[in-house]
């Protein structure tokens, strides 16, 4: 242990609930292992330590790190949703000294009363800045603080340790608000101290060099006939709708346009005139796909955008294709030949991709054994970029790989396909290949933003990918090797260059606020603790009020939902009554009506295990093939599980409405 690492561990070793805040690559996991080992060596009582992570790939990584220093003396168990489904969690966890697991697994076990917090003597939260709002970390800590306040004498609560590179500043506009945000993090984690490196800063700088940062603004295509033609098609489709009070925004590539399409679709769905409602549903479905194609064209190749539209049209023609779709598809088929010409013409290549290729090849020319992480916004874009690299003779030599979350799904051809997700084993194998040089470049979404530790990674590219100030610190920190570099390649027109500047300002604001908190806790610790307690009390009042409103809302929903039924959003055929629904595990809304299978088609899907249930099929409307949801297997029974956005709700008086999410449904669903 280095001097700065002992400085970080000091308060936790004294038994205090502590947040350890230090840069990425400074060895926070090593500090956590030291704290864990000292904690376990206390022979006065049985000690059990839980190390919580928020992403599946981190389970295996942290398991290896802990095993290196603590095995075989201590028994260590790695556990995530995929593996936890097959074991009795309540009986298994107490048999181990150290358990590395995803937070949701522990929260589920606590919620289902399979285990209690006093089973453990220490909880360590990796990337603890997530402990807020509806995150599983915060759900666990809410239980903890509730039990602490109730002061049950029979319960001995575990010590809390949080690890993070950055607590962020939230929505703070000044230092006072930034300090309040940091104290709020302490309140959520019941922390009596934030440990940061102050006295050993020179040593930290020696071992932890901050990667060089560069922002590369790139102008878009000077000519873009593909986008021009897509805009013309969209304008033609808008013209067929002729709804005066809902005029579309002029810039069709902006978020405001997508919102306009969503609003129009919802208004059209509740119309009684079946023909008009169907026309609006079809038109808005097509407009959404063209909106997506414009986004793909802006970030990837025109070829990728064209393939996306091609898949959509092919998918339509294979399922539920009618005259309305046929008229709309003509727009695409008539323009397809010219669109193909534009896609094949090198003159219209994407300048952002050209810049990215140049910088990647330059990086490998300087250091042939480099490892490069490329972050981008969406899972669909990871596929487009991977395909581009595999088809490029220079880039394919780097054997590019792709890393996405275990729950990833792609929207293609008019339906959700989940065959692009990655299992935990696939994620681990990919990271192993990256470490050993089998894949020299990995394209990733935010799943690799935090915690992933590849010592040889020396280049981080963010492809028009900008989050908040925490994300900036985290992505930059993936570059662990000496002389690392972090580059943002961003379109001049998109606003991400300005956003990056604001994040740099917020990062400096956070550093000042953290120093103020450090002085506050050393010089006026009683005041520090008073502030933390005040924020905990405020948070409790907010939760109690939210719970009371939720209960009131639930009672109101019971009355409002009586006699309500669901109709297919596309063809308006009857699907089921709201009374036919039951709820599994709070989130899954299943139909228990015995004649419901007569109204659906179930297409098999490769089994996909999630926690203690499995998805093994897709559910479609028998009449029009609209995607209604999935088939889930829970406790060896199969249930059609529906997504409410695929339906129109009809009240007994004939009035209609739509909902995008189940939590907004105007009726209550009983537990199964």
Strand percentage lies at 15-25%
The number of distinct structural domains comes to 4
- CATH homology superfamily name of the largest domain: P-loop containing nucleotide triphosphate hydrolases
Strand order of the largest sheet: 3-4-2-5-6-1-7
Q: Show unreliable segments.
A: 408-419
Provide a descriptive summary of the structure in words.
The chain folds into four domains: 3-208, P-loop containing nucleotide triphosphate hydrolases (Rossmann fold); 212-220 and 350-501, P-loop containing nucleotide triphosphate hydrolases (Rossmann fold), CATH 3.40.50; 225-348, phosphoenolpyruvate carboxylase, domain 3 (Up-down Bundle), CATH 1.20.1320; 561-664, Metal Binding Protein, Guanine Nucleotide Exchange Factor, Chain A, CATH 2.170.150.30. The chain has 20 helices and 25 strands. Strand 5 (122-125), helix 7 (136-150) and strand 6 form a beta-alpha-beta unit. Helix 2 crosses helix 3, helix 13 runs antiparallel to helix 14 (323-344) and helix 19 packs across helix 20 (525-560). It starts with a helix and ends in a 15-residue tail after the last strand. Residues 352-526 form the Helicase C-terminal domain. One of its GO terms (biological process) is innate immune response.
């Amino acid at each position: 242990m280095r001097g700065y690492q002992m400085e970080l561990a000091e308060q936790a070793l004294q038994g205090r609930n502590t947040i350890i805040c230090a840069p990425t690559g400074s060895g926070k996991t090593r500090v956590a292992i030291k704290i864990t080992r000292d904690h376990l060596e206390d022979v006065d009582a049985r000690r059990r330590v839980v190390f919580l992570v928020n992403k599946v790939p981190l389970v295996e990584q942290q398991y290896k790190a802990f095993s290196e220093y603590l095995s075989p003396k201590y028994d260590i168990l790695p556990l995530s949703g995929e593996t936890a489904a097959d074991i009795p969690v309540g009986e298994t966890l107490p048999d181990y000294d150290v358990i590395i697991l995803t937070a949701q697994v522990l929260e589920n076990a606590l919620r289902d009363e399979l285990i209690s917090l006093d089973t453990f003597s220490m909880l360590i939260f990796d990337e603890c800045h997530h402990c807020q709002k509806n995150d599983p970390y915060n759900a666990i800590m809410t239980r903890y603080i509730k039990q602490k306040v109730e002061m049950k004498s029979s319960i001995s609560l575990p010590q809390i340790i949080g690890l993070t590179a950055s607590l962020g500043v939230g929505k703070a506009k000044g230092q006072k608000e930034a300090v309040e945000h940091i104290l709020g993090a302490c309140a959520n984690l019941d922390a009596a101290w934030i440990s940061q490196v102050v006295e050993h800063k020179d040593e930290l700088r020696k071992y932890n060099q901050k990667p060089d940062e560069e922002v590369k603004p790139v102008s878009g295509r000077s000519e873009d006939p593909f986008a021009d033609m897509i805009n013309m098609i969209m304008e033609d489709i808008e013209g067929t709708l002729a709804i005066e009070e809902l005029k579309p925004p002029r810039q069709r590539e902006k978020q405001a346009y997508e919102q306009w399409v969503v609003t129009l679709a919802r208004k059209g769905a509740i119309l009684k005139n079946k023909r008009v409602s169907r026309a609006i549903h079809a038109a808005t479905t097509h407009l959404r796909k063209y909106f997506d194609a414009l986004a793909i064209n802006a970030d990837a190749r025109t070829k990728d955008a064209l393939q996306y539209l091609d898949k959509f049209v092919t998918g339509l023609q294979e399922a539920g294709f009618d005259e309305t779709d046929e008229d709309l598809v003509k727009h695409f088929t008539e323009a397809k030949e010219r669109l193909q010409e534009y896609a094949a013409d090198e003159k219209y290549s994407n300048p952002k991709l050209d810049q990215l290729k140049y910088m990647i090849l330059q990086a490998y020319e300087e250091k042939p054994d480099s490892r490069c992480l490329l972050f981008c916004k969406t899972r669909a874009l990871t596929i487009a970029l991977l395909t581009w690299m595999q088809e490029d003779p220079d880039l394919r030599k780097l054997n590019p790989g792709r890393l996405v979350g275990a729950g990833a799904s792609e929207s293609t051809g008019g339906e959700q396909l989940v065959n692009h997700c990655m299992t935990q084993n696939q994620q681990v194998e990919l990271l192993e290949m990256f470490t050993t040089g089998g894949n020299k470049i990995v394209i990733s979404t935010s799943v690799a933003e935090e915690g992933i530790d590849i010592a040889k990674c020396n280049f981080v590219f963010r492809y028009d990918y900008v989050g908040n100030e925490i994300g900036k610190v985290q992505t930059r920190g993936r570059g662990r090797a000496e002389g690392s570099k972090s580059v943002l390649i961003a379109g001049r027109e998109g606003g991400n260059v300005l956003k990056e500047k604001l994040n740099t300002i917020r990062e400096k604001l956070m550093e000042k606020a953290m120093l103020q908190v450090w002085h506050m806790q050393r010089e006026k610790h009683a005041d520090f603790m008073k502030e933390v307690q005040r924020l905990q009390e405020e948070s409790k009042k907010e939760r109690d009020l939210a719970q009371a409103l939720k209960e009131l809302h639930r009672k109101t929903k019971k009355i409002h939902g009586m006699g309500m039924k669901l109709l297919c959003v596309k063809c308006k055929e009857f699907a089921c009554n709201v009374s036919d629904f039951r709820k599994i595990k709070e989130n899954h809304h299943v139909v228990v009506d015995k004649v419901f299978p007569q109204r659906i088609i179930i297409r098999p899907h490769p089994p996909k295990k999630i926690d203690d249930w499995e998805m093994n099929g897709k559910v479609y409307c028998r009449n029009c093939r609209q995607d209604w949801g999935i088939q889930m297997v829970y406790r060896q029974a199969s249930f059609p599980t529906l997504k409410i956005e695929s339906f129109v709700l009809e009240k007994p008086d004939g009035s209609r409405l739509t909902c995008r999410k189940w939590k907004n449904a105007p009726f209550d669903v009983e537990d199964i």
